[in-house]
Amino acid sequence: MYDQIRSKVMMNLSVSHFENFTKRSASANHMTLLITCILMVVGFITISQSQHISSEIDVNTFGAIGNGITDDKMALQNAWNVACSSTGNLKLPIGNFVVGPMTFSGPCKAKTVVVNVIGTVTAIPMKNWNTKYNTWLNFQHVDNLVITGPGKFEGQGGSGWWNCKKTNNCERNPTALGFHHCNGLKLRGITSKNAPRNHISINACDGAIVSNITLIAPMESPNTDGIDISATNGVHVNGGHIHTGDDCIAINGGSSNININGVFCGPGHGISIGSLGRNGKTDIVRNVTVINTTFNGTQNGVRIKTVPGGSGLATDIKFRNIIMMAVENPIILTQFYCPHKKCSDKKPVVRVSDVTFEDIHGTSSKPIAIRITCSKSLNSCAGITLNRINIRHVNPKIKVQSICHNTKVRAIGVVLPYTFCTTKSFISMALDHDLDAITDKQSSIDIA
């Protein structure tokens, strides 16, 4: 009996030990499996990172020198060709890469193409330029192209290009950075200096985003627009500093749904819509918003300009929350833009409608702060609104004035200077560089 009881107890103990052992083994297996999974994930991340690093095409591996003297055009072109046909990642490291005019063509294999500019890209001087090129660095048919800083593009405009002012033949000067048919374009944190002509041209690049860029050229440099936008839908310009010799931003025909937010402009010619209708052309611009922007010492602030004899429409335009600091011509809407020649009130005209100037404050460096000069053609200007405007002269002793012709302006809240509109026919003799050349026959209202 005793032996039977002992055997049963030993059997129970053995079963209990076996079960505990099994549980401990299962727990150990679970822990081993967990550790194995963690190691696999870490290894995967490490491999992915190393693959990403190795997939970035460095221009130096293609023979670029980057010493500011040697021509690195061939190395950059070869690096682009490989990046475009494979990984889509191109790197220009620290260095000064001198290149002549180049074209970067797509479509590329990668869904997104990233050009990471860390160093400086410098144009060859004018004396070495082949005149058949009208753009220095030309990107075309590259969707989802991303060019990111903090690198710099040096256009060498001072190497002879700007001497064109002496012969009044600056139209031949090349654009620094041209983008054509690059939908989803993104420009981030780059700097462009001393462009021979305009810094950036965006043409037919729907959904473009430009953020926190810096564009610099001397105030006297000719035709050095900051950003020119044409034939493009859905552009966002967010932040950035533009100091140049012409329009900080120009919005041309075929553009729609343009949003400009938080830009600092000055020196320069302000932010312009147009000119529209030049050489009898039909131009349409729709839905433009300029907001939270500062103009400092510019020739113009916010401006809409159309040329007599053209046709089309500029509509749904809003300028809001703008600061003017010693601006020569803070607010301009004119259908008599005729640079370098006399204007006549001839038909047809580009119609301007539904334009709002709202919450614009600051100072004018000249007596006329608001200029609204419309064509005598019926309904050529309609739906113009001034809302909470307060612009005074930089000299408190000088009164500010307004000029308004051939339209009715709706004023909301306090508007200084007050705008009195007439229906008198108006012919402008003004040039773009001297809007004060308007005839003395125009009427204006003095505001203390």
TrEMBL record:
Q: What is its main location?
A: secreted
- Keywords noted in UniProt: Cell wall, Cell wall biogenesis/degradation, Glycosidase, Hydrolase, Secreted
Q: State the source organism's domain of life.
A: Eukaryota
Q: Where is the active site?
A: 269
Location in the cell: Secreted, Cell wall
Give the GO molecular function terms: polygalacturonase activity
Q: Which InterPro entries match?
A: Glyco_hydro_28, PbH1, Pectin_lyas_fold, Pectin_lyase_fold/virulence
Q: What GO biological process terms does the UniProt entry carry, in alphabetical order? A: carbohydrate metabolic process; cell wall organization
- Annotated family: Belongs to the glycosyl hydrolase 28 family.
Protein name (database record): Polygalacturonase
Organism, scientific name:
Centaurea solstitialis (yellow star-thistle)
